[in-house]
Specification:
mainly beta; eight-stranded antiparallel β-barrel; 10% helix; globular
Length: 148
């Protein structure tokens, strides 16, 4: 009789310990948001990255930024004044994240142009990236801060 009772209790415990399928983990979305350029850096002769404050056009209230949406589209805004009027050179496109590389893609005259940005560090509030300037071939480093 004890064996039957033991089997019955074991079976009851197993049935009551079902996994909670309703609990899901959502990975935090660190990339989505408006990122303001704060510092720009380059490698000096001693192979050390030296950062300087990024200076926005003083005649423009808006700051240069990169907006990454959670639908994998981006908007890059660069503000410069022309004849005392602030102009926004805006670029739109899509992005993908592959390992630690953020690849921005945009279409220019029917041709797709990509810019791979290597993510050096990423927190919810600050991202440090590097990329190669397509015109000069120089390795550029940038620190951006999320606008909260």
């Amino acid at each position: 009789m004890r064996k039957i009772l033991f089997v019955f209790l074991t079976f009851a415990v197993l049935l009551s310990c079902e996994s909670d399928d309703g609990v899901t983990y959502t990975q935090p979305d660190y990339l989505s948001g408006k990122w303001i350029v704060k510092e720009i850096g380059a490698i000096n002769q001693q192979n050390v990255v030296v950062y300087n404050e990024f200076v926005n056009d003083p005649f423009c209230e808006e700051k240069d930024n990169l907006i990454l949406s959670n639908d994998f589209t981006f908007q890059e805004n660069s503000f410069e004044s022309e004849n005392s009027v602030c102009q926004n050179s805006q670029t739109n496109g899509t992005y993908v994240l592959e390992n630690n590389t953020l690849i921005l893609s945009r279409s220019v005259n029917g041709e797709t142009i990509t810019l791979p940005l290597t993510i050096i560090s990423l927190t919810y509030e600050i991202v440090t990236i590097s990329f190669t300037d397509t015109e000069t071939g120089e390795l550029i480093f940038m620190k951006l801060e999320k606008e909260l």
